[in-house]
Amino acid sequence: MGTSRVRKVCIVGASGKLGQYMVRHALERGYEVVGVCRERSVPKLAPFEGRMTVVPGPTDDPDVIRRAVAGCDGVLTVLVPWGVRQYASGTAQAVLDHAAPDARLVFSCGWHITRDGQDTYSRTFLLAVRVAALLGRLVRAVEIDDQVEACRRVFASGSRWTVVRGSSLEEGESEGLPVWSRHVGDPVLASNLTRRVDFALFMVEALTDDSLVREAPAIVGRRSPSAVAHGSGGGSGPDAGPGEHA
Ligand SMILES: NC(=O)c1ccc[n+]([C@@H]2O[C@H](COP(=O)([O-])OP(=O)(O)OC[C@H]3O[C@@H](n4cnc5c(N)ncnc54)[C@H](OP(=O)(O)O)[C@@H]3O)[C@@H](O)[C@H]2O)c1
Questions:
Q1: Domain limits of the chain?
Q2: 8-234 in CATH: which number?
Q3: Which of 4, 63, 146, 239 is deepest in the core (most CB within 10 A)?
Q4: Residues whose beta carbon lies within 6 Å of some atom of ligand 1
Q5: Cβ atoms within 10 A of the Cβ of 16, count?
Q6: What is the pLDDT of residues 80-130, one digit of tens each?
């Protein structure tokens, strides 16, 4: 773990499933929480009323983000490929432009994002991504390429970023901090399944884990068969225990 001190965090995309879990984890740690979500989604944050500040508005609006991240030591951003108006890259750019230069920035995405081209994907996975991208574009609902662009900008930035690459997700009780690898294709990740609550846990933990600065960990549930088979008992990252190597 690092020495970073975190007191106030902004959660961009707080009203979604991942966002709400992150709000919960952040409040449990005693952080002051500011959440950003679309105006129509504010009621979804009613369970946290009085315990967090909500800044309503589109997450790619620079003015909304500027107000929300003011004074924050950390920013947790849910990058989503919804719509066909560069929502993900606009959101990432607004955070990169307006967060404090030394703030910890943690972004979410999926395994399909590659930082260095060293990930190896199954044919089924690649096909699923291609079909989703094509269908999404056809119905003008999803823009996978823009999530790729968003991450490209984050990787190129000089900020203290972490891009957390989620496997397939499921609901359920927490199993603890997911294990991770630098590259998809590592056998430890083969199960390709993480509890959403633990994806959120990893994002929040990353705020204070300096070993994750400028890393793009691909995660998997610590009790998933592949993680167990490769010795997830020792910790959560490549240096944490036998078998968890990138
Ligand atoms: N789902 C998966 O299987 C999976 C797998 C791997 C990685 N991930 C990653 O996990 C993160 C969370 O994904 P999730 O699937 O679990 O979803 P989620 O947490 O429910 O988040 C969805 C987000 O998208 C927003 N949204 C929905 N429709 C929108 C629209 N038309 N325009 C703008 N924003 C819209 C939601 O805002 P509102 O609350 O305002 O609707 C919410 O903030 C993402 O970074 C995703 O890439 C997901």
A1: 8-234
A2: 3.40.50.720
A3: 146
A4: 13, 15-19, 37-38, 41, 44, 78-80, 82-83, 87, 108-110, 166, 168-169, 196
A5: 18
A6: 988 778 999 999 999 999 999 999 999 999 999 999 999 999 999 999 999
